[in-house]
Amino acid sequence: MHPQLAADLDRLPDLLEVTRRHAVTFLDGLAKAPVVPDRPAPRAVPLPEEAAGLQAALRDFAARWEPGLSASAGPRYLGFVTGGVTPAALAGDWLTATVDQNAMSSLDATGQHLERETVGWLRDLFGLSDGHHGALVSGATMSNTVGLAIAREWLGERLGVSPAEDGVAALGTVRVLSGSPHSSVAKGLSMLGLGRAALRTVATLPGREAVDPEALERALRETDGPCVVVANAGTVNTVDFDDLRALAALRDRYGFWLHIDAAFGAFAALSPEHAHLVDGLDLADSLCVDLHKWLNVPYDSAVQFTRRRDLQARVFQNAAAYLGPLGEHPDLVHLTPENSRRMRALAAWFTLRAYGRDGHREIVERCVACAHTLGAAVEAVEGLCLLAPVRLNVVCFTLTESPTAERLAALADGLAAEAFLTPTVLAGRPALRAAFSNWRTTQADTRRIAAALERAVRELPRPRG
Predict the structure, then answer these.
(1) Quick check: 74 and 63 in contact, CB under 8 A?
(2) Range of the domain at 67
(3) What is the CATH number of the domain that holds 322?
(4) Are residues 61 and 177 in the same domain?
(5) Residue 418 resides in a domain
(6) Where does residue 339 rank: exposed (0-12), middle (13-18), buried (19+ CB within 10 A)?
(7) What is the pLDDT along the chain (465 residues), one digit of tens a residue?
(8) Cβ atoms within 10 A of the Cβ of 444, count?
(9) C-alpha span between 90 and 423 (Å, rounded)
(10) Which of 124, 189, 389, 403 has its CA at a distance of 20 to 30 angstroms from the CA of residue 154?
(11) Cα-flanking dihedrals φ and ψ of residue 429, to 5°?
(12) CB-based contacts of 91: which residues, under 8 Å, 6+ apart?
């Protein structure tokens, strides 16, 4: 063994304690740290020739890289839809690296048994029936892609072919219909060989991002052969929800595959006041839910569900002498694109076991309350206006005067030390979007963000002319 490896092994308890203290210091500083530091990337250095050990690497990381890291784990990072990491999820993730399991095969099965239990708990959390089977993947993009891959095989089943065996050319022209599809849907169609051009956007209800069921029915009448409908349970800009039961009723009449993108909207099921938004979620043929959003587990983690695990295994089966057979309960290696991945279920298992339904309901309801507080604050600030009602956990707003992408970027830059918001466009209007999903965020944080937003609007240069 290399002498430095041997030395680090001998000192491992002490080195892990040093690392623990460093991590705690970082986390303790989140409340005061600039949310997005204004700092250039450090100068690149060559690969070291000499072994210096873990502690030297930690010192170098702390000096060169850590000062530029955002406070994305903290309470005022409202960009994208980003959760933090609950204490239990952090412990679970640390143990995931510690035990370093291959969770894909029944030949070494404990990891995948734990994942099956975790998926069962998630199914219960979202009010799904036992007809749904699932597996963990890296994020909503991969969850949507897996769902669409199963849908692709279902299309082949309708036509008497198997795209997994015969290739996508055997399907001919494919149509995928959606009202406000997330960008990952088009990306997934590209990766699956169906092509971005297969996606047809259907009219939404007036002033909404929810699909118009009548417009969808007209599109279905005009579509030859079987097709796929991607429904939304929580759109990115305004957290709008399609009428899932109405879409399922259309599915029963027109015979399409119903995929529901519920990346973070599925968590509405935890709140009695908002559970009606996801009424009909269980009717999906396939379903996407992101876990590193509102479940607050580390990047990267999501879950996909489907009622047709047989088709899923047909797509993703991996034949090798060292892998188990498909059987009634296929190994995880046969269910997702990855043959190798860490035991990412452990972080989700820990947070679900530690805080249960009640603890995660409290996170959801607190985030929703904070979003409403910020929404009210936006309405009270001269120069700002909401672009949509605050339905759940996202506040979408713009400038009342000259709302250009450049001025909104300047507004976001003026906020960067206090809060991080991401730009968007809604109905052709540039806007900013604040998404609440971090378990640390409180009303005090929200008031601080609102005050910073008011200052930033005041200090924004007036538009020319």
Answers:
(1) no
(2) 3-71
(3) 3.40.640.10
(4) no
(5) no
(6) middle
(7) 999 999 999 999 999 999 999 999 999 999 889 999 988 999 999 999 999 999 999 999 999 999 999 999 999 999 999 999 999 999 999 999 999 998 888 888 999 999 999 999 999 999 999 999 999 999 999 999 999 999 999 999 999 999 999 999 999 999 999 999 999 999 999 999 999 999 999 999 999 999 999 999 999 999 988 999 999 999 999 999 999 999 999 999 999 999 999 999 999 999 999 999 999 999 999 999 999 999 999 999 999 999 999 999 999 999 876 776 677 788 999 999 999 889 999 999 999 999 999 999 999 999 999 999 999 999 999 999 999 999 999 999 999 999 999 999 999 999 999 999 999 999 999 999 999 999 999 999 999 999 999 999 999 988 876
(8) 11
(9) 29
(10) 124
(11) -105, 125
(12) 350
Q: How far is CA 348 from CA 222, 265, 266, in A?
A: 43, 18, 16
Cα 240 to its chain centre, rounded Å, is 16
Q: E strands within 99-201?
A: 133-137, 176-178, 199-201
Reduced to 3 states, what is the DSSP secondary structure of residue 1?
coil
Q: What DSSP string describes 350-369?
A: HHHHHHHHHHHHHHHHHHHH
Asked if residue 133 and residue 38 are part of one domain, the reply reads no
Rounded Cα–Cα distance for residues 290 and 264 (Å): 6
Amino acid at 234: G
Strand locations in 362-401, DSSP E? Answer: 384-386, 394-399
Alpha carbon of 343 to those of 212, 215, 239, 311, 353: distances in Å? Answer: 40, 43, 31, 24, 16
